Amino acid sequence: MEIYSHPIFDMACRQFDIVADRLQIPQDERARLKFPKRSLTVAVPIRRDDGSVTVFSGYRVQHHLTLGPTKGGMRYHPDVCLGEVAALAMWMSWKCALAGLPYGGAKGGVNCDPLKLSQGELERVTRRFTQELVQFIGPQIDIPAPDMGTNEQTMAWMMDTYSVHAGHSVPGVVTGKPVGLGGSLGRRESTGRGVGYLINRAMDTLEMDPAKCTAVIQGFGNVGSITAYSLAKYGVKITGVSDVSGGLYNPKGLDLFKLQEHLAKTRSLEGFGEGELVSNEQLLELPCDVLVPAALERQITGENASRLKCRILAEGANGPTTPDADLILDQRDDVFVIPDILCNAGGVIVSYFEWVQDLQSFFWTETEVMDRLFRILEGSFHQTLQLSRKEKISMRAAALTLGIKRVRDAKQMRGLFP
């Protein structure tokens, strides 16, 4: 469909087609599996602090509704567009199915730069956007969550706007909320902790000693920073990190606590004295045992895949590796890939836990949340690794095969109406 035309959506479709060929899915079934069930584009007009009016574009894509309501983040970023959101929604479908969650995938966002908006303007964007979506979201329809450029406060505004419309409090309409409004303990840290857990499991599989390993992390936001702390607890030395301002490399290891203090003051890695300055592109090619791309899509390409010097590639971001890069990595026995739909699934798994807690009005301790998270990740990792070895296919192909097959099986059982 031309309306979704975008390099990232094309990339998601290529990944799907490769697996569909392996599973011998007939051509007449593929469009129903691949293309979104619903997509919505809305105008989001707000009054700025200076009295002027700006109209932003907002999007929400619900990929499929076969297994239950849809689930996925809300992204505020200048590059947000329908094609990108559709690709992210498709990946979320396979991710939820791989983890065994009763959801279809969704994604949404507003084409804006949150760093150039005041707190009041961000609130007005969020509330107006939510009002436009009121008929399309809900605890049994579509449950948004935070993503790039959004946070717990954004979700609190969304929940409040929806609840005002409903006439009563509806905490289950979003996840990633503050704990005081029905959020789950451990939700904010869940994606990064999940990445760290799976890297540790990969090290066990490859018989690597974490205390002798180094890690480089591209993207030091919520996911990247929590991943760094999780790996440090396992004994891994963090030698490189980056954000939009550039990267830092110190083969002796970076002091994460000093780094966090610097970020709290400046909101940027720029100016942090310890370490050699490198670009984001150079960072990906640094020597390390673990490389974690935790920033934007399409960072590892056919051009740089052969130059990676890591043993484990753990995809904290969505879609960081292109299909061209996959072809190269598939030929390299020295790089173990933990694919994105497995690696960063911790966020949606704990979002599921938050939704369940909200529906029951019964809340769990952080220990219970983390224990259940790691059990689901363990099962997904084991199934993916087992299929990869049995069929002699890549970890990405194995993860996608499991996710796509489960969605396809569910659609076949339900049938086609009318």
Describe this structure in words.
The chain is α/β, with parallel strands linked by helices and 418 residues long. It folds into two domains: 2-174, Leucine Dehydrogenase, chain A, domain 1 (Rossmann fold, 3-Layer(aba) Sandwich), CATH 3.40.50; 188-343, NAD(P)-binding Rossmann-like Domain (Rossmann fold, 3-Layer(aba) Sandwich), CATH 3.40.50. It is 46% helix and 17% strand. It has 14 helices and twelve strands. It has helices at residues 7-23, 27-34, 82-99, 119-133, 152-166, 187-206, 222-233, 256-266, 280-284, 323-330, 340-343, 346-360, 366-391, 395-414, and strands at residues 38-47, 53-62, 70-77, 104-111, 142-146, 214-218, 237-243, 246-249, 276-278, 290-293, 312-314, 336-338. The strands form two sheets. It has a seven-stranded mixed sheet with strand order 9-8-7-6-10-11-12. Strands 1-2-4-3-5 form a five-stranded mixed sheet. Helix 3 crosses helix 14 (395-414). The longest helix has 26 residues, at 366-391. It starts with 6 loop residues before the first helix and ends with a helix. The mean pLDDT is 95.
List strands and helices in order, with pairings.
Blueprint: H1 7-23, H2 27-34, E1 38-47, E2 53-62, E3 70-77, H3 82-99, E4 104-111, H4 119-133, E5 142-146, H5 152-166, H6 187-206, E6 214-218, H7 222-233, E7 237-243, E8 246-249, H8 256-266, E9 276-278, H9 280-284, E10 290-293, E11 312-314, H10 323-330, E12 336-338, H11 340-343, H12 346-360, H13 366-391, H14 395-414
Helix pairs in contact: 1-3, 1-14, 3-14, 4-5, 6-7, 6-12, 6-13, 12-13, 13-14
